Amino acid sequence: MALQTIEFELNSTGTPRRVAAPVHHGVVGSGDLEVLVSPIGKSGKLQVRIVTPVKGFEDLWRRVLTHFANETGLTDALVEINDNNASPAVVALRLRQALAEASA
């Protein structure tokens, strides 16, 4: 199984929100994924790196992450996702869980 890496940067439009320390949520299993969120400098951007076995869904990944960034205002962070065929709903859930853990 060849893996594909997708990388892009986003500008959040919500109220700026930052993480103070790295957090990890989820596991790489069938239909699931893990999310790692780490603080990075003061770039004002959200950097995203996705490793997935599924090809051809770059636009969908960008839409899900853009919605998350705009809704939460997360900025100055690196979001790393190791995917194993998760649906967009599971992706959105794991992102929110990771951010909630970072805020706890």
Automatic annotation (TrEMBL):
Family: Belongs to the MdcC family.
Compartments (UniProt record): Cytoplasm
An example Gene Ontology CC term for this record: cytoplasm
GO molecular function: acyl carrier activity
Post-translational modification: Covalently binds the prosthetic group of malonate decarboxylase.
Organism for this UniProt entry: Rhodopseudomonas palustris (strain HaA2)
Predominant place of localization: cytoplasm
InterPro entries reported for this sequence: Mal_deCO2ase/Cit_lyase_ACP, Malonate_deCO2ase_dsu
Name of protein: Malonate decarboxylase acyl carrier protein
Function: Subunit of malonate decarboxylase, it is an acyl carrier protein to which acetyl and malonyl thioester residues are bound via a 2'-(5''-phosphoribosyl)-3'-dephospho-CoA prosthetic group and turn over during the catalytic mechanism.
Pfam family, one: ACP
Superkingdom in the source lineage: Bacteria
Modified residues (O-(phosphoribosyl dephospho-coenzyme A)serine): 30
Gene, per the UniProt record: mdcC
Keywords: Cytoplasm, Phosphoprotein
